[in-house]
Amino acid sequence: MSSLLQEFLRPASRKRQHTMKGRGEAEAVVQFAIDFLGDPRMNELTDDKWKLLDEALPDVPNRDDIPREAAKTLYQRFKYAEARGWSELTRVTTTTIKSRYWGGLYKFIDWTREKQYSGVRYTFECINPENLAPLPRDAFDDEELLKLLTQPLFTGCKNRMHVWQPGGYLVQSHIYRAVRRWRFRPYAKPYEVACNRRHPVRRPTFQLA
Known about the structure:
Elements: H1 2-9, H2 23-37, H3 47-56, H4 74-84, H5 94-115, H6 142-149, H7 152-155, E1 157-159, E2 162-166, E3 169-170, H8 174-183, H9 190-197, E4 207-208
Parallel strand pairs: 3-4
Antiparallel strand pairs: 1-2
């Protein structure tokens, strides 16, 4: 497996860079499989070995509360929990297991099948009941967003250097452009949203800076 991993991670030519997407993220979990299973050949991987790997993945702890020298690889974290127990450790989320661990292994396995691996594509399924549920995504609610859009950067600021102080200029800085791309349609301007949703806010007469 280790020689295949090296080939899997080998930089592609410029015209094939698009085929490399996700491979870097898969490296850690594939290396865990190599360390855990003893670097077998792909065709030596039986269902029993895949099942052992499947059952081990939920037992890789979060790196928090693990000394840095013992948390450099997933396998080191796994062995740390195995030796010390879980009383001071936390498990990773189900999202991490499904997206990073299973997803990374599937990407590697599918690539090896294109090369030489002729075995069955194992389906991962093991989740420990103590693995954390996915954390809620952090996002602005409507009031927070409107509060942001009533700031001088979006309603008229002093100048390029003082974008958070009221004034008569609209500075289309990287912050302004980022918010516009992130939240609005191409023709919807942040100050227009603020003006339409909050009556006390009037569209200012300002100059572009």
